[in-house]
Design goal:
The complex is a heterodimer. Chain A is of the alpha+beta class. In chain A, 43% of the residues lie in helices and 18% in strands. In chain A, helix 1 crosses helix 16, helix 2 packs antiparallel against helix 14 and helix 2 packs antiparallel against helix 18. In chain B, the strands form two sheets. Chain B has a six-stranded mixed beta sheet, with helices on both faces. In chain B, strands 2-1-4-5 form a four-stranded antiparallel beta sheet, with helices on one face. Chain B is α/β, with parallel strands linked by helices. Chain B has one domain: Rossmann fold (3-Layer(aba) Sandwich), CATH 3.40.50. Classes of the chains: A alpha+beta, B alpha/beta.
């Protein structure tokens, strides 16, 4: 017989005690395992939401949001022309990121122009698409809340020490409208009114008087001499009762007409009637009331030559390929969007008459900044009339410790930049997921520790009680030549064997609990702040919901990883060692004489 | 025939501290016990026979005086040395049998052999042989709970013999047995003493049991009063 057989018999032939102790361990282990499983599930879910930057090879995202900058403008007067081609110190003077508390007034001129252009799209005046009743399909691209800026900013960030890469992205909200051009609501005519102006002319000067006199004289001369037959108009207008024949002299209308020819121009003008020009003006007085149907989606323009960094990376292509060497008419489609719209590799996406070939289906991970379609950057820029402009820069740092320093340098170089790091993104997550995760990690850990200690305590008490019951047995073993060490090993072995059994049982129970959690999967909400492409004011005209809402629903899962199982198992074995150690220590202190002590 | 000396006691005293009082359980005991003797320690409860038995069983050491077992002065030994002495040279038989209730008869007999090097098969065979020797070959795989008191004590004797001891220390071995079983146990012990020349030391206050031994040590108040040998017939 080996000691193992003794342990085995001790356990199997005292099954009640063994099972009681083992179930104590199992209860502890299963609860600990499932708590850790849930915590791990929540952590995974949160990580996916909170620390997604690492998945796209990015440490910092630089954006610029209206009203998001808090630095007062260093130089509030915008100087046109400096923004586009400027380098170095010019940036401070309303450069890429003109400072300013809020809104458009503090943007530089080129930004203003860009913003006005993007908001002055045909979307606000559908009549530009054709006469009323015309069927149209059109895709509009609006920057939403992410203001664009010239792409030269990428170069500025690349020059910061510690930056290993920076790539610009243009993320826009696409609005796909189909419908008929609505009837113009109001057509009205302005102008055409006649107005009489009365004024007192200044007295004639001596020279003017002489001029008038000379003129009148000449007029009369010419009428009497060289013109025997008066013009019909003159005759007709000279009033009734003048009879035929020529009476000579100057009288009636004749004189008036003559006088009007001889008066200075200023006198004539004062007597003219002012007639305003007649114009027909069409004006939209209400938002278009039409059978317009709007679909909203998000698009990003990415640099096809940068495969491992940015809003989407080549690694996230789940089927098909990354952009080829001629990316102009290619598009990558988000998996979710592809499923909804039945797109697959090889399908075509037509935007404003241009067909784009779907070359790849991607599964982006960056929650809150996920686009439905990804185009070549320059293609999107020209399509959206945003030439040379981007609105996000993805920056990677040489190492994580430099992120803060780089962020500060970007702030200095590009005042008004909004900088998002993995940490600030994580800090911005709220909602029940964050609450549950906090709960699972803090309260859950405390609970796990309490449960573990509780099950340890139960195991220790049971083991000690077992040792006390076996005093005579232990004394006999010592009397028959078992050393202290051997006795301790025996008790420790029994305890550890029970804990191993309890640990396995606990893991099985934990699996069951986690399976139940997975099956029921309570839903938790998470709201990520900081990055939202959609939610533009234009979108709200049509009452559409913001597509890039960063709220995510996460179903609680309790994935059991090997480390968790090993940890739960290890905790049980540790408890077994502690309990057996304490029991063995007590046993080793028993005098072997105790086996014989019952007699006087 | 000159007997080989197994125990030598010279003014062996054992005191116990009970609270503030010092209790003298054994006072200046002096005697020798030779190999192959069959000795009974007789006396009322509290006479010190249990204490003397613990000394002889190398489970206790004297407070003063000299006790040698097989030439070893036990006061100068460590627990490890005494453990080995107990394992190799002494077998115990208890009033309560003290069998491990979760082990079968054979496994109980194997227990003292666990710390000893040797092939498991040999040990198994020896355990079976020992059980046969005590007349329990049909009870080899029984748990103690399914054995009678007399059978349990036979298992205990087989266990005590496991490592071929020089001496069997038996504390009231028949105290929990009916008289028929008691006589059966005494028959077994006598046979071991006669056939195997195993020294037997029995503590008892049953005259019928004491009568079966060859040497009677009478004790009272921790002292050896009388030490007489029964003439062998």
């Amino acid at each position: 017989m080996s000691p193992f057989q003794y342990i085995r018999h001790e356990l199997t032939r005292r099954l009640g005690r063994t099972l009681t102790t083992a179930f104590g361990f199992a209860a502890g282990v299963s609860l600990v395992v499932s708590i850790m499983g849930v915590a791990s599930g929540l952590a995974t879910a949160q990580n996916r939401l909170l620390s997604p930057l690492s998945t796209v090879g990015t440490d910092i995202i630089v954006t610029r949001t209206v009203g998001a900058t808090t630095t007062p403008a260093a130089s509030p007067s915008p100087s046109p022309g400096t923004s586009g081609a400027g380098t170095g110190p010019q940036h401070r003077q309303g450069g890429f990121f003109a400072g300013g508390g809020s809104a458009i007034s503090s943007l530089n001129a080129q930004d203003q122009a860009a913003l006005l252009q993007s908001n002055d799209s045909v979307l606000t005046d559908l009549s530009k698409l054709g006469p009323p009743g015309t069927q149209f399909t059109h895709d509009f691209f609006v920057p939403g809340t992410l203001i664009t800026f010239p792409s030269q900013a990428v170069g500025n960030i690349t020059s910061i020490p510690g930056v290993t890469g920076a790539v610009g992205v243009l993320s826009l909200q696409g609005v796909h409208d189909t419908g008929t051009v609505p009837k113009i609501v109001a057509t009205f005519t302005t102008g055409g009114q006649t107005q009489t102006v009365t004024a007192t002319p200044p007295p004639l000067t001596a020279a003017q008087q002489a001029q008038v006199r000379t003129c009148l004289f000449q007029q009369i001369q010419s009428q009497q001499g060289s013109s025997p037959s008066p013009s019909p108009r003159q005759g007709g207008t000279n009033g009734p009762g003048t009879g035929g024949g020529f009476r000579g002299g100057l009288g009636g209308g004749d004189f008036n007409s003559v006088l009007s020819k001889c008066l200075p121009a200023s006198y004539l003008k004062y007597q003219q009637q002012v007639v305003t020009p007649i114009r027909t003006v069409q004006q939209i007085v209400n938002p278009p009331q039409t059978n317009l149907s709007t679909k909203s989606y998000t698009v990003s323009g990415v640099d096809p030559s940068v495969r491992n960094q940015g809003v989407i990376t080549a690694a996230q292509v789940v089927s098909g390929t990354w952009f080829t060497s001629s990316p102009k008419d290619e598009v990558l489609v988000n998996q979710a969007y592809a499923t909804t719209n039945s797109l697959k590799v090889g399908s075509a996406v037509t935007l404003n008459g241009t067909a784009f070939k779907v070359v790849g289906i991607v599964a982006p991970t960056l929650t809150g900044n996920v686009s439905d379609l990804y185009f070549d950057l320059s293609t999107l820029q020209s399509m959206a009339t945003q030439s040379g402009r981007i609105n996000e820069i993805f920056v990677s740092a040489k190492n994580a410790s430099e992120v803060n320093a780089i962020a500060a340098a970007i702030h200095t170089k590009l005042p008004g930049a909004q900088i998002l790091t993995a940490k600030s993104l994580a800090d911005g997550v709220t909602g029940s997921l964050a609450d549950a995760h906090t709960l699972a990690t803090s309260l859950g850990t405390a609970l796990a520790i309490i449960i573990l200690l509780g099950s340890f305590l139960i195991a220790i008490l049971l083991t000690i009680s077992n040792v006390n019951k076996r005093v005579r047995e232990i004394g006999s073993l010592r009397a028959m030549g078992w050393s202290r060490r051997r006795v301790v090993q025996q008790l420790l072995g029994e305890s550890v064997a029970i804990s191993v059994f309890g640990g396995i049982l606990g893991i099985l129970l934990g699996f069951a609990i986690c399976a139940i959690i997975d099956a029921t999967g309570p839903a938790l909400q998470a709201t990520t702040s900081g990055l939202a492409v959609g939610a533009s004011s234009l979108g709200s005209i049509f009452g559409q919901s913001s597509t890039a809402s960063a709220a995510s629903t996460v179903h609680v899962t309790a994935p059991l990883s090997l480390p968790i199982l090993l940890l739960g198992f290890g905790a049980a074995v540790l408890g077994g060692i502690i309990a057996g150690g304490i029991g063995g220590w007590r046993a080793s202190r028993l005098s072997p004489a105790s086996a014989l002590r019952n007699l006087g | 025939m000159e007997q080989e000396t197994l125990y030598t006691l010279a003014e062996v005293t054992r005191t116990y501290q009970v609270g503030s009082a010092t209790v003298r359980a054994l006072s200046e005991a002096t005697c020798t016990i030779g190999k192959g003797e069959m000795v009974s320690l007789e006396g009322p409860s509290g006479s010190g026979k249990s204490t003397l038995l613990l000394m002889l069983g190398v489970l206790e050491t004297p407070s003063s005086g000299t006790l040698t077992f097989k030439g070893t002065d036990l006061r100068k030994t460590t627990d490890e040395v005494r453990t080995v002495l107990r394992r190799d040279s002494i077998g115990y038989v208890f009033q309560q049998f003290n069998l491990i209730p979760t082990l079968t008869a054979r496994e109980n007999v194997l227990l003292p052999m666990v710390p000893v090097a040797g092939k498991n098969a040999d040990k198994q065979q020896r355990a079976a042989a020992l059980l046969e020797q005590v007349g329990l070959e049909h009870r080899i795989s029984h748990l103690p709970g399914s054995l009678s008191g007399g059978e349990q004590q036979r298992v205990a004797i087989a266990r005590a013999l496991a490592n071929q001891p020089d001496v069997i220390i038996a504390d009231e071995p028949t105290g929990n047995l009916d008289s028929a079983s008691a006589q059966g146990i005494m028959d077994l012990l006598s046979r071991l003493n006669e056939e195997e020349h195993v020294t037997i030391i029995i503590a008892t206050h049953d005259p019928a049991i004491a009568k079966r031994t060859h040497r009677h040590i009478m004790m009272r108040d921790g002292r050896l009063l009388e030490d007489q040998a029964t003439p062998t017939t």
